[in-house]
Amino acid sequence: MKKNEARIKASEITPRELFYARRRFMQLAAGASAAALLPESVLAGDKLADVKTSAYTLPDKLTPMEDVTRYNNFYEFGTDKEDPAKNAGRLKTRPWTVTVEGEVNKPKVFDIDELLKLAPLEERIYRLRCVEAWSMVVPWVGFSLAELIKRVEPTGNARFVEFISLHDPEQMPGQKFSVLEWPYREGLRMDEAMHPLTLLAVGLYGEVLPNQNGAPVRVVIPWKYGFKSAKSIVRILFAEKQPVSSWTQSAPGEYGFYANVNPAVDHPRWSQAKERRIGEFLKRKTLPFNGYADQVAHLYTGMDLIKNF
Amino acid sequence: MTLKTLDASFVEGIKTGVFLLALAPLIKLGIGFYIDALGANPIEKITRTTGYWTLTFLLITLSITPVRRLLGWNWLIRLRRMLGLFAFFYGSLHFLTYLVLDQFFDWPAIVKDIVKRPYITVGFPSFILMIPLAITSTDRMISRLGGKRWRWLHRLVYLSAVGGVVHYWWLVKKDITNPATFALLLGILLGIRLIYRARGLIKVRLGPKTVSS
């Protein structure tokens, strides 16, 4: 690559201003054509059209949208839980592509607007349990990740899926500090990724996903601690080897690969037996697999979940 | 009147001002609670704010003696007891927040926390150590104990401060900027004392005149 770059004549280099003017024009054109195709808008706060209700509901009271969007961990925008809402304004969610590659027969670069139409959007009310012992109930919008996985046809070698988030310190000021190794990486075993509960989310509360909640596209794995649910995904990689996620890399003794919600396995520094549901005074007991044991416990039969925390 | 030699009434004025200022974090929390402006997790906010101010007042208290020595502002000593008591006050609020708001008297969980969670294992005694200091902060207690024993007892504040900073360091997940700042400041404040002590010892060895701490 370096050699080729050196061979380019100065006369062939597009002047900077022209390059940016052209880029702007192309972005405008792309935006205009996308707007023509999509009557609905794509900015955070806009209503998503044609969202179906689903069987994934809960009797639990929803956490107010104000709390869902103003209190969360997204270290790309700062380490305080109030930072994402403050600092996510610079994130540009259009144009946006998600590259799906690795051990698949049909690797593909999906444009975000194409991804939004890949399968019918549905609302799913999930519990969210943070590893810090607080929890919420969130009405997400999206579809099963399996819908996407089927379309790229994983090969027989695909045993794991890795999610890679955007790395751009200009848009994500928290990345100017090396609190974690950027880009943020997370992963699932293939059967976990294919599980119908594993959601590819593009919205919440019927609206386009706010930047601070992982716009424009993230995963939500409700039976695992929140950090497993990678946000602002730009690349999905299928592999034979188990990927190392950013948190595991930073503290292997504290954040495991599985990270299933488990009241019996404490975090080394705090108890996981109880949690504070945001908006409630008394703590509630944490449920195994965050209350999704009936649906997912069979994925782990025969596994030592204390060792594989 | 210079900054070295302030009138007694002037010092009283400063003391009142510092007293009111030291209440500001509590008043801000109270207003925030009242108008529901403490965010999605008010209990966490109250815990963090009271913890932060406990450490801050501990450091301010520990800076009185070195600043007084360096600048010769002897009147500063008259603020020290009040500042120390504010550290204890915010520490008590911090502890009560944990006991009542966070755990709601769940004694088994509290005992488990103290035994199993290193940051609580170190934080809990750091607070407990402040109690005898608060109790013996009155003039009567000072004269009852005698200056020497009182000074010896009040060196426990060093343990409390170190424990408090370690408590903070061990509880943060990843971004240690804040606890590291506290640790650095505390290191400076304790380092200054070591230097004075070393100098004092040299002076003691060289001459007959002892230097009191």
UniProtKB/TrEMBL annotation, chain A:
Annotated Gene3D superfamilies: Oxidoreductase, molybdopterin-binding domain (3.90.420.10)
Domain of life: Bacteria
Cofactor annotation: Mo-molybdopterin
Entry binding sites for Mo-molybdopterin: N72, Y75, E76, C130, S165, N213, R218, S229, A230, K231
PTM comment text: Predicted to be exported by the Tat system. The position of the signal peptide cleavage has not been experimentally proven.
Catalytic reactions of this protein: L-methionyl-[protein] + a quinone + H2O = L-methionyl-(S)-S-oxide-[protein] + a quinol; L-methionyl-[protein] + a quinone + H2O = L-methionyl-(R)-S-oxide-[protein] + a quinol
Domain Oxidoreductase molybdopterin-binding: 92-247
Pfam families: Oxidored_molyb
GO terms, biological process: protein repair
EC numbers, comma separated: 1.8.5.-
Cofactor note text: Binds 1 Mo-molybdopterin (Mo-MPT) cofactor per subunit.
GO molecular function list: metal ion binding; molybdopterin cofactor binding; oxidoreductase activity, acting on a sulfur group of donors, quinone or similar compound as acceptor
InterPro entries: MsrP, OxRdtase_Mopterin-bd_dom, OxRdtase_Mopterin-bd_sf, TAT_signal
Keywords for the protein's UniProt record, in alphabetical order: Metal-binding, Molybdenum, Oxidoreductase, Signal
Biological role: Part of the MsrPQ system that repairs oxidized periplasmic proteins containing methionine sulfoxide residues (Met-O), using respiratory chain electrons. Thus protects these proteins from oxidative-stress damage caused by reactive species of oxygen and chlorine generated by the host defense mechanisms. MsrPQ is essential for the maintenance of envelope integrity under bleach stress, rescuing a wide series of structurally unrelated periplasmic proteins from methionine oxidation.
Family: Belongs to the MsrP family.
Subunit description: Heterodimer of a catalytic subunit (MsrP) and a heme-binding subunit (MsrQ).
Protein name, as recorded: Protein-methionine-sulfoxide reductase catalytic subunit MsrP
Organism annotation: Candidatus Methylobacter favarea
Gene: yedY
Automatic annotation (TrEMBL), chain B:
Keywords (A to Z) from UniProt: Cell membrane, Electron transport, Flavoprotein, FMN, Heme, Iron, Membrane, Metal-binding, Transmembrane, Transmembrane helix, Transport
Cell compartment(s), UniProt: Cell membrane; Membrane
Membrane topology field: Multi-pass membrane protein
Domain Ferric oxidoreductase: start-end pairs: 51-164
UniProt KW Acetylation keyword: no
Cofactor: FMN; heme b
GO cellular component: plasma membrane
Transmembrane segments: 18-40, 52-71, 83-101, 121-140, 152-170, 176-196
Comment on bound cofactor: Binds 1 FMN per subunit. Binds 1 heme b (iron(II)-protoporphyrin IX) group per subunit.
Function: Part of the MsrPQ system that repairs oxidized periplasmic proteins containing methionine sulfoxide residues (Met-O), using respiratory chain electrons. Thus protects these proteins from oxidative-stress damage caused by reactive species of oxygen and chlorine generated by the host defense mechanisms. MsrPQ is essential for the maintenance of envelope integrity under bleach stress, rescuing a wide series of structurally unrelated periplasmic proteins from methionine oxidation.
Record-stated family: Belongs to the MsrQ family.
UniProt protein name: Protein-methionine-sulfoxide reductase heme-binding subunit MsrQ
Organism from which the protein derives: Candidatus Methylobacter favarea
Gene name, Swiss-Prot/TrEMBL: msrQ
